[in-house]
Amino acid sequence: MRSEADYAEVLKGFYAYFRAVEDNIAPFVTAEVLPDLAERRNSSYIKNDIETLGGNVDSLPEATAPTVNNVLEALASLYVLEGSIMGGPYIVQMLNKYGVNKGTSFFEGYGENSREMWAGFTAVLNKYAEDPATYDHAVEIANQTFYNFGDVFTPITSAN
Q: What is the pLDDT of residue 1?
């Protein structure tokens, strides 16, 4: 990923997958469940970054998010997305080394509030994961979310 065009193509994978997960979890992860939901990074930031780089979201890779059936499963899926955001500042540093200095609003994460946002999210997740009987399945959903995320990039990396 050594150009803005390459970066925009990678972002399309992020956008497609984040949007797929967000669509699946929307009925379960509401502001009532996660009070700071509106403040969290989401696919709209990625779309904005793609457009800032001169791209569009007309042609996206296929993205399949795991099916979720309740709040805990939805939070387990969101755990993967939130975790990926935490590493974003390192991605921004790498991009800057290659001369990509725009279209990074998503990966800038929560800035100085990153630790607080992560702690807030994990507190909510832990609250819903108090029943040991549901823990293993929640971990399965998180793992599936992670693996499916990687699948989105197979055609992108094959093309580059």
A: 66
* Closest C-alpha among 59, 90, 77 to residue 125: 77
- Give residues with Cβ within 8 angstroms of 83, minimum separation 6: none
How far, CA to CA in Å, does 46 sit from each of 13, 125, 140?
10, 24, 26
Q: Is 120 exposed, middle or buried (CB count within 10 Å of its CB: 0-12, 13-18, 19+)? A: middle
CA distances from 62 to 11, 32, 37, 93, 151 (A): 13, 31, 26, 28, 9
Number of other CB atoms surrounding residue 12 within 10 Å: 24
User: What's the Cα-to-Cα distance from 94 to each of 10, 99, 107, 155, rounded to whole Å?
Assistant: 14, 9, 11, 22
Q: Which residues of 68-86 are buried (b: 16+ CB within 10 A; e: fewer)?
A: beebbbbbbbbbbbbebbe
> What is the rounded distance in angstroms from the CA atom of residue 155 to the CA atom of residue 51?
21
Residue 151: both structure tokens together: 């699948």
- Could you give the CA distance from residue 72 to residue 136 in angstroms, rounded to a whole number? 11
For 34-73, write each residue's pLDDT tens digit.
Answer: 999 999 999 999 999 999 999 999 999 999 999 999 999 9
The contacts of residue 61 (CB under 8 Å, 6+ apart) are 12, 13, 16, 152, 153, 155, 156
